Amino acid sequence: MPVNQERMRKLMDHGLTEYQARAYLTLLDLGAATATQVSPMSKVPRTRIYATMRQLHQKGLVQILPESPLRYKPVPFEAYLQTLAEELRSRAQQIDTGQESLAREFAIVAEASPESAGRFEAIYGRKNVRERLLRMYTTAAREVIGIGTTKSPGRILGAFRPDLVERASQGVQLKYAFCFTPDNRDDVRILLRHAQVRHIDFMMPVYMHVVDGKEFLMSHPIPDDDSAYRGDDIAIWTNDPAIAGAMSEMSERIWAMGRPAADVLKEPRPPRRVAVTRP
User: Fold this and answer.
1) Which of 182, 191, 210, 224 lies in disulfide reach of 248, CB 3.0 to 4.6 Å?
2) Share of the chain above pLDDT 70, in %
3) pLDDT confidence of 2, banded at 50, 70, 90?
4) What is the C-alpha to C-alpha distance for residues 163 and 161, in angstroms, rounded to an integer?
5) What pLDDT, on the 0 to 100 scale, is given for residue 152?
6) DSSP line for the chain
């Protein structure tokens, strides 16, 4: 059969070089031959033919006949494939056996760092901010803390009331703190059915949510109104462990220093409010 590109490609796919493939295919046609006979027919240069024949012998594809001059006889390719398959199986078994120890020995050092950095996102538009908060509420397993503006009670009820009911029924603690006003007291009373609500004596220009100490979102409501969907709000969200943990601690302290809603709502007049001003 001719020495063609297709047959050479198949041999090269099984570990032979081009010169080795040419010489082996030529030997298959000749049966047994000297190197000088193989060279012109295989188009392997005479300067490379002896080295090529030695390489084929090392691969087990050629027998060297001790004659003068030396003659070379092809070994059936099936025998070579069987030997190759056994070597590959043995190698695969060695890799499988040593996989765990090698993985530990050559592990990426950066992955062993005790701290991991989280992600950050900037979110634009009240609808998009609401969707992010919904996902946060959905993952809540232990606690949600929200510190908000005077309009937050109405927005929370309008956007998340079914989720509040579900989370509360599953034992998730819902903690909120706002500055109470005559306009938001009715919403606060409704929110009290599902959450622990407290009054803080200063107005927040932004609102914050922390879920399980793992996710944190702070948003500037633009405008600060009752709509749960319409607004040009801008927010930042992160699940960075250090930042989320710090903001969880801060939010917990703000909530803890507030007065329980039940006590405040008994008072005939709203408590004095102090606005937080930007520097």
Assistant:
1) 210
2) 92
3) low
4) 5
5) 92
6) ----HHHHHHHHTTT--HHHHHHHHHHHHHSSEEHHHHHHHHT--HHHHHHHHHHHHHTTSEEEE--SS-EEEEPPHHHHHHHHHHHHHHHHHHHHHHHHHHHHHT--GGGG-S-----EEEEESHHHHHHHHHHHHHH-SSEEEEE--TTHHHHHHHHHHHHHHHHHHTT-EEEEEE---TTTHHHHHHHTTTSEEEE-SEE-SSEEEEETTTEEEEEE-SS-SS-SS----EEEEE--HHHHHHHHHHHHHHHHHSEEHHHHHTSSSPPP-EE----
Write down the domain spans for the chain.
Answer: 5-79, 120-275
Q: Do domains 5-79 and 120-275 have the same CATH topology?
A: no
Instruction: Please state which architecture CATH assigns to domain 5-79.
Output: Orthogonal Bundle (1.10)
d(CA 64, CA 82): 20
Question: What amino acid occupies position 146?
Answer: G
Residue 113 confidence (pLDDT) above 90: no
Residue 116: per-residue pLDDT: 63
Statement: 120-275 belongs to CATH 3.20.20.70: no
Query: What's the rounded mean pLDDT across residues 252-277?
Result: 77
Please give the Cα distance from 244 to 25 (Å, whole number): 68
Beta bridge partners of 178: 199
Quote the mean pLDDT of the chain.
Answer: 88
Look at residue 111 in the predicted model and tell me its pLDDT: 52
Q: Cis omega (within 30 of 0) on the bond before 66?
A: no
Q: Which two tokens stand for residue 25?
A: 């295919």
